[in-house]
Amino acid sequence: MPDHLTVVRHPLVQHKLTLMRDKDTASAGFRRLLREISHLLAYEVTRDLKLTNTSIETPLQEMESPILAGKKLALISILRAGNGLLDGILDLIPSARVGFVGLYRDEKTLQPVQYYFKVPEGLNDRVVIVVDPMLATGNSSAAAVDLLKQAGATNIRFVCLLAAPEGVERMHQAHPDVPVVTASVDEKLNDHGYIVPGLGDAGDRMFGTK
Ligand code: URA
What we know:
By secondary structure, this protein is α/β, with parallel strands linked by helices. Helices cover 33% and strands 30% of the residues. The structure holds uracil.
């Protein structure tokens, strides 16, 4: 099991994150960078996956060689911004099963409201990777993990691009068993629940809405 909190300080991640934070980076560039960073975050969050040996034949001889053990992973995207991370992680783990949790944030209470939930079967036997670029208050992330646990998941990890200290704390309180992998823990949340300095609304930046 990875550490409770992993901040991926790899220079490529930090460089790409800076470009994403820049308000002058337009949607197409933002999406491309998010996809690229998600490869590197996926590398980190999967580094302890179990392997088993299988027999294969190379052109020269037979050998026992490692492959991933167990059932296919489940990737769970928290809509809508999670989809930006999902695409990149699927590049690396194309056989993963995919689920979606639809939660929107009530702008007054900042509490999550569920509107969609569709996840793969057999979550109890799978490594489950939940993706959402912004761990802000942590309310929707913690609520999504609650739902996944109710659906049977026991081995859950959470990947985000940016986290606020408040969100990390909230996830840790609610789900101490769920490790968080991120590219940065920023300074704070502002009064509207945005991460500061952050990068703004990840969904709007990704899809060009506003
Ligand atoms: N969601 C976002 O997209 N951005 C934030 O800063 C906080 C939550």
